[in-house]
């Protein structure tokens, strides 16, 4: 079905969309993508389950419509009885269903009821297939409204409308029956992650961990730049007032707006190369910590992209094996559902190889994990054991030593506080002199971004 040709309003129900534009529609999808790790699975989930619109209005999905369909079939079965003498051909058709109501069926009424039951069965098959595929283009909205009412039609129209808004705004790109994220979607997800974490950072201090202060940003250059969200709020009042007068005139009182604000620019003195090692082991997903870690990775990715363009940031995921993750692929990255293992050894090897190619003075690894290493590499093959064998621990610590010899600092952020992990981190710290932090998943971003920023001087 061509979405642009869909009648977006029911004949019987006037309804304003819960979406004004694609931006508001994407807010619904973004959280699903972060949680599920696949845009097509996220879309399937919305089609099946429905969603809550921006005005907190619930929009039902296919499961809700299937429930209505079953209620309609049960209503017919409970209302009518086939104990009346009827033509044999009609009786044969009625035997497919177990009517147990009190109202007798006449031949004419029986044919009407049978026709409706058959249409409900056909609709059930189409909806069941749409539940599996996540594609709703084959649904006949007129038939849906006729059989189940105008509200069911409106619900599907809202889902159509959402998909159309996302495509038109450039958030989703469609190839045949598959979607992929547009660059605008990746940017928006990363920006949202950074906003969320910076908002947490402003709410209070971090206990024993020093917070980042604006005085750490380096020397003034004498220039100003337009204020952007996330920057040090060191406003240059003279330039900001000048912008207000140019825009709105000199009448009193002056009405300053956000676009008038300019901040002092500081000198970017350092350049660094960082690998974020992201634990993708099964426990990260089973205990609900991977989504929080992925948000931090996205926030750090966007921070470097927009504020530290001279810096290098790489992401290495590790579970049974290590793997490089491109920044554009972070929103759809996920944890390993099928294979056990925390191959920190392979993750460190890949990280060290990436940093070896960078000609900068500051090289570091920021590792997020919830457990000690349980796998290591031997001849290109991963070997897993839980509890970890001495061989796994030894090989991992040898890689820590190689990183240390190459001037790479390893700072670790632990999402679980257990004896084995803490003991292993102590051994790492003795070799590398890096730091280890224990933090809850919802505070990970505050700790990691502060740790990244503390040693930086940049232009803001």
Keywords:
Rossmann fold; 6-stranded mixed beta sheet; 460 residues; 3 domains; alpha/beta; 16 strands; disordered N terminus; two-stranded antiparallel sheet
Descriptive overview:
- The chain is α/β, with parallel strands linked by helices.
- The protein folds into 3 domains: 3-67 and 117-181, no CATH class; 220-266, no CATH class; 272-454, 3-Layer(aba) Sandwich (Rossmann fold).
- The chain contains 15 helices and 16 strands.
- The chain has helices at residues 22-36, 39-49, 62-79, 88-94, 107-133, 141-148, 150-168, 183-202, 237-248, 282-286, 290-307, 344-356, 390-405, 419-432, 444-454, and strands spanning 50-52, 58-60, 80-81, 103-104, 172-175, 178-181, 220-226, 262-266, 272-279, 312-318, 322-325, 362-369, 375-378, 381-384, 408-414, 436-438.
- The strands form 6 sheets. A 6-stranded mixed β-sheet has the order 11-10-9-12-15-16, sandwiched between helices. Strands 1-2 form a two-stranded antiparallel ribbon.
- Helix 4 links the parallel strand 3 and strand 4 (103-104).
- Helix 1 crosses helix 2, helix 1 packs across helix 7 (150-168) and helix 13 runs parallel beside helix 14 (419-432).
- The longest helix has 27 residues, at 107-133.
- It is flat.
- It starts with 21 loop residues before the first helix and ends in a 6-residue tail after the last helix.
- Mean pLDDT is 80; it is low at 1-15 and 204-217.
């Amino acid at each position: 079905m061509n979405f642009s040709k869909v009648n977006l309003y029911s004949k019987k129900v006037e309804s304003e969309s819960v979406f004004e534009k694609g931006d508001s529609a994407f807010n619904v999808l973004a959280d699903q993508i972060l949680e599920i790790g696949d845009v097509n699975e996220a879309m399937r989930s919305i089609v099946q389950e429905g969603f809550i619109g921006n005005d907190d209005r619930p929009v039902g999905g296919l499961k809700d419509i299937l429930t209505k369909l079953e209620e309609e079939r049960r209503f017919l079965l409970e209302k009518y009885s086939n104990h009346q003498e009827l033509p044999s051909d009609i009786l044969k058709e009625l035997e497919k269903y177990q009517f147990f109501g009190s109202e007798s069926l006449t031949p004419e009424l029986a044919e009407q009821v049978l026709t409706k039951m058959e249409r409900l069965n056909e609709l059930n098959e189409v909806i069941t297939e749409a539940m599996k595929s996540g594609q709703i283009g084959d649904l006949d909205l007129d038939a849906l409204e006729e059989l189940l009412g105008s509200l069911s039609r409106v619900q599907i129209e809202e889902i159509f409308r959402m998909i159309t808004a996302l495509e038109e705004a450039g958030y989703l790109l469609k190839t045949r029956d598959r979607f992929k994220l547009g660059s605008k979607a990746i940017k928006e997800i990363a920006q949202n992650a950074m906003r969320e974490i910076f908002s947490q950072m402003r709410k209070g201090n971090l206990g024993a961990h020093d917070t980042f202060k604006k005085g750490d940003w380096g020397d003034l250059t004498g220039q100003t730049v337009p204020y952007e969200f996330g920057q040090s709020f060191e406003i240059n009042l003279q330039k900001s007032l000048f912008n207000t007068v140019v825009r709105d005139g000199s009448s009193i009182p002056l009405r300053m707006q956000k676009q008038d604000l300019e901040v002092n620019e500081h000198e970017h003195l350092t350049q660094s190369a960082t690998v974020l090692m992201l634990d993708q082991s099964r426990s990260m997903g089973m205990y609900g910590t991977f989504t929080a870690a992925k948000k931090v990775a996205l926030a750090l990715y966007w921070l470097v992209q927009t504020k530290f363009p001279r810096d290098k940031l790489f992401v290495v995921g590790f579970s049974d094996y290590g793997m490089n993750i491109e920044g554009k692929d972070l929103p759809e990255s996920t944890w390993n559902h099928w294979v056990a293992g925390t191959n920190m050894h392979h993750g460190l090897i890949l990280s060290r190889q990436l940093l070896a190619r960078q000609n900068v003075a500051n090289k570091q690894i920021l590792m997020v994990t919830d457990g000690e290493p349980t796998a290591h590499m031997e001849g290109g093959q991963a070997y897993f054991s839980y509890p970890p064998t001495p061989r796994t621990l030894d090989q991992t610590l040898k890689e820590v030593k190689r990183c240390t010899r190459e001037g790479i600092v390893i700072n670790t952020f632990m999402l679980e506080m257990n004896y084995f992990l803490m003991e292993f981190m102590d051994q790492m710290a003795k070799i590398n002199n890096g730091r280890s932090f224990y933090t809850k998943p919802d505070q990970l971003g505050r700790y990691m971004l502060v740790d990244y920023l503390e040693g930086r001087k940049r232009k803001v």
